[in-house]
Design goal:
The complex is a heterodimer of chains A (417) and B (289). Chain A has 417 residues and is mostly helical. Chain A is built from 17 helices and no strands. Chain A has one domain: Up-down Bundle (Formate dehydrogenase/DMSO reductase fold), CATH 1.20.1630. The chains are: A mainly alpha (417), B alpha+beta (289). The complex binds iron/sulfur cluster (2 copies). The site of one iron/sulfur cluster has 14 residues of chain B, from helix 4. One iron/sulfur cluster binds next to helix 3 of chain B.
Chain lengths: 417, 289
């Protein structure tokens, strides 16, 4: 009886997939697509190989063999950039799902999948980069299996949220996988779970986006006073909104070109409208963020510090990378100028990188005699993480209906619901 | 619309309540803080800088013996590291050369303990703050959080440990003195309960106000520490971190942690509410069209 059932399922699976047998389907999936000798491949491949060598060295000889970390600066580029900045950029996933599934803004539906996929991969890789930074990674399960819960730790909260949010995003993305393997029933069940996953995911994101800032709350005297305040969590949360959306704009403009053939005529045309909408939201959130920064500054009463090198750097960040992109977003939204929107997104992204690094690396122990500067090996590993993510992203986009329209049976299924 | 507003108000109310209970919990913690912890009083007016404590510490914890030429020199700060848990430094002060011992201060409410997500770093009920290698995952968040930069990390090992003074916890629970306290020939180190030590320190200051600077470092720093210091000169002159706050460091994250449950309860409800109302609105619109 059981056996028959299984056969049946296989038969269904095979048939749904245009009659392709499972094995052939998998073989098809693994085969590389497109030309191999592209400039991107040629640059990224050697770096990735080098990166893997460095990672091996790191596990044999210890973290000190490849990084410039010191006893005073125990967290460097891998945490400050890969984890803290990477996760801010992945914020687009919760913002877009909020707009589409909670606010029912249908206009943005066509970018939900790619944004969630991006967010998911970002978490897997950037949060995964955390493992490289752990001295004793084999104990990473301790706070998860429950034999030692450090519930008063912000890092405990963040780690758990990473894990849960990855699961939530996987659920949000899973209907796409079901469409790909052609399993109608699974798709129906999985897409029924989307709303719950979205609500859970937004809640988790609110908490861990701010939680990443809260990680640094106890380092109150170690971070330069212009960047340290008890409001770091709120600032991190608000900035994750425009960080994520700028990433969506940036990634979208690249995907529109690179994956041109995947995108339907209709979605191509609607893309400009989406960018306009997003630039409006970016303007508003950047304004709120700037306002909060001003409040924080006034509250901290550090006027005297402005007239120092760190003070100039702070002003550069606030004016050049918050006010300027805010103005650009606003202007380009009024003038419907797509190029300027993309430019504003780029400046915003650089600004977010600068801000996160200022809190975590530049401003951390700014007064130390010896400053931390990442070693070239730390940078190569960071690039490796980035490139591996892009490779996998590309692999998925060229196979699954992420940018491409769903198979025709999906329409029938949803209209029946 | 009316109902929506009422919902909104009750949401606000709930937030208020959870914030209030948060405050209560903080208060309760403070009361729990009266336990009798053991600690050590270090009197720098007595210390002769013989580094005896350094040697016995290395011996006790299986660390390399300090090199014979590695002696305190004024002007150069020797730091504890993964190979030594305690160091003696000498400072040229307004009252001549003064020796200072450096090691973990065993805070009453340690930042490292509350930072640790695996409970590897923990304040024992006896007072010492200890590290457990079976739990630690090497994230170094304790190092980021400790206001005194105490925990050290073995950067050049594939099985790295967090290294810091544990006040000889194993000896303390056996009823013995910490190795350094036992070894000190000048009686610069005194072991006892924190309350006794503070009383003793005050007694010394009162008996010889000319000798001592009138302050016990650690009495209120970082919410109170297990290691307490007496000095002949202001503590800034001895390289002490005098910018530390007097409130316990874990309090800096309390507010955030207490807001977590309320967000977890409220957010999903609010989101679902918006979702429902927006959906209905849209349906209505479609009907009118
Ligand atoms: S001094 Fe640092 S390591 Fe020692 S107990 Fe306090 S916070 Fe922990
Ligand atoms: S390095 Fe180890 S002891 Fe320190 S916070 Fe991380 S898990 Fe805890």
């Amino acid at each position: 009886m059981k056996k028959k059932n299984m056969n049946n399922q296989n038969a269904v699976l095979a048939k749904d997939n245009d009659g392709m047998p499972v094995l052939k389907f998998l073989a098809e999936a693994i085969k590389p697509k497109g030309t191999f000798f592209t400039p991107f491949n040629m640059i990224s491949l050697p770096i990735m190989v080098l990166g893997f060598v460095i990672i091996v060295i790191r596990f044999i000889k210890g973290i000190g063999a490849v990084t410039n970390l010191t006893q005073e600066v125990p967290w460097g580029l891998w945490i400050g950039f890969d984890v803290v900045t990477g996760v801010a950029f992945a914020g687009g996933a919760y913002v877009i799902t909020f707009m589409v599934y909670i606010l029912n803004m249908k206009k943005y539906h066509s970018i939900v999948r790619v944004t969630v996929l991006n967010g998911f991969l970002a978490y897997v890789f950037y949060a995964g980069a955390l493992l490289l930074d752990l001295g004793r990674p084999w104990n990473v399960i301790n706070p998860i299996i429950g034999n030692s819960f450090g519930v008063s730790s912000i890092l405990f909260l963040v780690a758990w949220h990473f894990l849960l949010y990855m699961i939530a995003m996987l659920i949000e993305f899973s209907p796409t996988i079901a469409e790909w393997i052609g399993n109608q029933r699974a798709r129906k069940i999985l897409s029924g779970m989307t709303l719950a996953a979205v609500i859970f995911g937004i809640t988790l994101s609110t908490l861990h986006q701010s939680g990443l800032g809260a990680l640094y709350l106890m380092a109150s005297e170690k971070i330069h006073p212009l960047w340290y305040s008890e409001f770091i969590p709120i600032l991190f949360f608000v900035s994750s909104i425009f960080a994520g959306l700028s990433m969506v704009i940036f990634e979208g403009s690249i995907s529109q070109k690179v994956f041109d053939s995947q995108i339907s005529e209709k979605n191509h045309r609607s893309h400009d409208g989406i960018l306009h909408g997003l630039s409006k939201i970016c303007t508003v959130t950047l304004f709120i963020y700037f306002f909060l920064q001003v409040l924080t500054f006034v509250h901290g009463k550090h006027w005297d510090l402005l007239n120092s090198p760190m003070g100039y750097w702070y002003l550069t960040e606030m004016i050049g990378f918050v006010l300027l992109p805010m103005g650009l977003f606003f202007y380009s939204y009024r003038k419907q100028n797509i190029f300027l929107i993309k430019l504003a997104a780029l400046i915003t992204m650089i600004g977010v990188i600068i801000n996160r690094l200022n809190v975590t690396v530049v401003g951390f122990r700014w007064d130390a005699a010896v400053h931390y500067f990442p070693s070239w090996m730390e940078i190569v590993v960071t690039l490796t993480v980035l490139f591996v993510e892009i490779w996998i992203f590309r692999w998925i986009v060229t196979r699954l209906p992420v940018l491409r329209d769903s198979p025709s049976w999906v329409k029938k299924q949803s209209s029946k619901l | 619309m009316n109902i929506n507003r009422r919902n909104f108000l009750s949401v606000l109310g709930l937030t208020g309540v959870s914030l209030y209970t948060g405050e209560k919990l903080v208060a309760a913690q403070k009361i729990g803080n009266e336990t009798e912890f053991y600690g050590v009083l270090y009197d720098s007016t007595r210390c002769v800088g013989c580094q005896g404590c350094e040697s016995v510490c290395a011996e006790e914890h299986g660390l390399p013996e300090p090199a014979p030429d590695d002696v305190p020199v004024s002007g150069a700060v020797r730091k504890a590291n993964e190979n030594r848990r305690t160091v003696i430094n000498v400072y040229n002060t307004s009252k001549g050369e003064v020796y200072v011992k450096n090691q973990c201060l065993h805070c009453n409410q340690p930042a490292c303990d509350s930072a640790c997500l695996t409970r590897a770093m923990s304040k024992t009920k006896e007072g010492p703050v200890i590290w457990n290698g079976e739990k630690c995952m090497g994230c170094r968040y304790c190092m980021v959080s400790c206001p005194f930069d105490v925990p050290k990390f073995e950067y050049h090992s594939s099985n790295p440990k967090i290294v810091k003074c544990n006040m000889c916890y194993d000896r303390v629970i056996e009823g013995k003195l910490p190795a350094c306290v036992e070894a000190c020939p000048a009686e610069a180190l005194t072991f006892g309960t924190r309350r006794e030590l503070i009383a003793e320190a005050h007694r010394r200051i009162i008996n010889d106000p000319g000798l001592y600077y009138n302050k016990i470092y650690g009495e209120s720093e970082a919410g109170g520490t297990g290691f307490l210091y007496l000095s002949p000169v202001p503590f800034e002159e001895l390289g002490f971190n005098t910018t530390v706050q007097n409130r316990p460091y874990p309090e800096l994250t309390k507010g955030f942690l207490y807001s977590v449950p309320s967000i977890f309860v409220l957010w999903p409800a609010v989101l679902l509410g918006i979702h429902k109302s927006v959906k209905n609105n849209n349906l209505e619109e479609e009907e009118y069209e």
